[in-house]
Amino acid sequence: MYDQQMRKLVYALLSSYIDIFVYALFYVAVIICFAVMANQFIEIPEGTDYDAFVQNYGDLPRAIYLMYILTTFDAYPDNQMVGIKLHLWLYGFFIAFIFLNALFFVTIPANVLFNSIIETRSKSVIID
After folding, report:
1. CA distance 44 to 38
2. Rounded to whole angstroms, how far apart are CA atoms 108 and 93?
3. What is the pLDDT of residue 36?
4. DSSP assignment, residue 88?
5. What kind of fold does domain 23-116 have according to CATH?
6. Are the beta carbons of 35 and 59 closer than 8 angstroms?
7. Which residues of the chain register pLDDT less than 50?
8. What is the 3-class SS of 12-81, one letter each residue?
9. Mutual orientation of helices 90-100 and 76-86 as an angle, nearest 10°?
10. Alpha-carbon distance 34 to 64, whole Å?
11. pTM score, two decimals?
């Protein structure tokens, strides 16, 4: 089934590949930056009972994964419980990350990307 509107949208998405790539790089850089901070801030002492898969910020690749999971707002309290139990000031770190992510790191670049797609799509509408 051929739909001309869908063709224009796909063309606009493909034409905005540079903006999509820049957005992905920015998003990855933000996650890695906060993961490095979490890796340095959260030190779990020996003998502390924690889940090595969802609460291990001492391992940098695992911390990157956990910060990515945190950007999706999935398992929000579970990932932070061991750190918050050890240091109450870590609430500020996680709350700052959530607010910055929700208000700036996702919405503004996504809006720029959306505007690029709309601009490309409007050019293709004029051509057609």
Report:
1. 11
2. 21
3. 93
4. T
5. Helix Hairpins (1.10.287)
6. no
7. none
8. HHHHCHHHHHHHHHHHHHHHHHHHHHHHHHCCCCCCCCCCCCCCCCCCHHHHHHHHHHHHCCCCHHHHHH
9. 150
10. 8
11. 0.73
